[in-house]
Amino acid sequence: MASGMAWVHLRLCRSCGHVGCCDNSPGRHATAHYFATAHPIIEGYDPPEGWGWCYVDEEFVVLPDQTPRRGPIPRFCDGL
């Protein structure tokens, strides 16, 4: 986001809260964050998806306790 690159979906690191773009986005920042930090689990954050991904086990995980949001991400608001 800060780099100005286009992104498809956002992923949230469940260890530290870092927000990075998904692997379908040019920067692949969420995966790069994992390799830089070894933080193992990301959450599908934009739009809220209710799942996570474990890089260590390379499998989806159910996240019943999704990270709370202060409001919708502007890209998904009507009229923006």
TrEMBL record:
In alphabetical order, the GO MF annotations are: zinc ion binding
| UBP-type domain sequence ranges | 1-80
Looking up InterPro entries in the UniProt record yields: Znf_RING/FYVE/PHD, Znf_UBP
Instruction: Classify the source by domain of life.
Output: Bacteria
Instruction: Supply the Pfam families for this chain.
Output: zf-UBP (PF02148)
Protein name according to UniProt: UBP-type domain-containing protein
